[in-house]
Amino acid sequence: MPIGMKIPLARPVFFGEELEEVKSVLESGWWTQGPKVEEFEHEFARFVGSRYAVAVSSCMAALHLALIISEERNVAVPDFTFPSVANSAWILGRNLKLLDVNVDTYNVDEVDEVGWGCVVPTHIFGNPCDMAKVKGDFIVEDAACSIGAYLKRRHVGTIGNIGCFSFHPRKLLSTGEGGMLVTNNSEIAEKARILRDHGRESKEFVLYGYNFRMSDITAAVGLIQLRHLPEILKRRREQAELYTRLISELEVEARPQQTVNGAIHNYQSYVVRLFKDSKEIIAEMARRGIETQIGTFALHLQQGHPLSLPHLSIPNSKLLYRKTLTLPLYHEMAEAEQVYVVQNLTLCVGRDKKMGD
């Protein structure tokens, strides 16, 4: 927790059982990719409903492999997102197209890039993108934040050709670092397994590859987290409902992220759109002992990045970059702490005069 903060932005949940699982791996002598990784892959695939799951070292590793496997030279990505997939596309020398997003859901919509190549919709903050409106030659779902999120009863990440998940400490299922690539295509799964291990198939090197392997230590933590995931998701949705109710009751000048019909948000992050500059509010909330941050980034406005293209007209992404705010949310956060956050948010941003002030 940052110095002086009473309420941090996030905190990973730890159940204690992880220690015993890690201890058993350490004692087994098999620390690198091995039986625990295979077990984690099997259980993860079963949870999300995909035929195959390939564990890797990070979500960016999964996205990187997905772009290689797609073999598409052109890649379309949301402008309002974390830069992982754009970075991979840039590293691989792909032609990038930046897409604007919906101002209410923060996701891309009405995307028709058939003939363009690979389209990478993000289920931003765990909010399912309307995949029926996303068309492309090859679809890679950036489901980094979205374990436990569903669209019309299908787990996100299993709708396109490939889905990519993150196990970063801010995610609902955390292993410290780590990621998972899922697919229903056996050839894609096999190529991902070869590429993550230096291009090795059996004892032969058949492709240029990477060291994107996950360790059995990491997988052991993931298995425990996965077993507790239903209770984690239940708790998180209850907390999100409380935030939404408090914002409505106190008539806060803020708009929670909206979902499309048939979507079940996992609320990895609870993000609101303000009518003031969020950076000013972040500083004021910090003075009150509450850690907040922007929603995420507008890629075309990142100074010094190869994608810095401030002349582009991507209005909704630009608006959300400047006006969205992520509120603190973690498994052990108490109701009184959420009330404290919203009360202070009200003092910082004011009440919505359209609601009757």
Model description:
With 357 residues, this protein is α/β, with parallel strands linked by helices. The protein folds into two domains: 17-227, Type I PLP-dependent aspartate aminotransferase-like (Major domain) (Aspartate Aminotransferase, domain 2, 3-Layer(aba) Sandwich), CATH 3.40.640.10; 230-355, Aspartate Aminotransferase, domain 1. The chain contains ten helices and 16 strands. It has helices at 17-28, 35-48, 59-70, 84-91, 186-196, 216-227, 229-249, 278-287, 315-323, 335-349; strands at residues 52-56, 74-78, 95-99, 111-119, 134-142, 150-151, 154-155, 162-166, 179-183, 200-201, 204-205, 254-256, 263-264, 270-274, 293-294, 324-327. The strands form four sheets. A seven-stranded mixed beta sheet has the order 1-9-8-5-4-2-3. Helix 2 (35-48) runs parallel beside helix 6. The longest helix is centred in the C-terminal third of the chain and has 21 residues, at 229-249. The chain is globular, with a radius of gyration of 20 Å. The two termini are 36 Å apart. The mean pLDDT is 94.
SS summary, helix count: 10
End-to-end gap: 36 Å
Q: What number of structural domains do the residues give?
A: 2
Q: Stretches where pLDDT falls below 50 for ≥5 residues?
A: none
Q: What best-fitting shape do the alpha-carbon axes yield?
A: globular
| H and E string | HHEHEHEEEEEEEHEEHHEEEHEHEH
